[in-house]
Amino acid sequence: MQDLAEGRFIVESLTPDEHSVALMIQDRYLDLDLGLADLSVIVLAHRHRTRRLLTFDERDFRPVTPLAGGSFTLLPADL
pTM for the full model? Predict the structure, then answer.
């Protein structure tokens, strides 16, 4: 919390339009039972034009196709 208060990190949030995109992703991958955190990461990756995610959660992110196509690079597993 101290790092946030001092501006060392920025907490991103989704816009209303991006929440709609998150719902679309949730519907596409119903079998994965993705939560808000995972859906937000996928949408924010698209916003920041990246396919590289720092996560140990391969179960949720391996089967998901990024919004721009291709596949995610999951770090550190894909090093």
Answer: 0.89
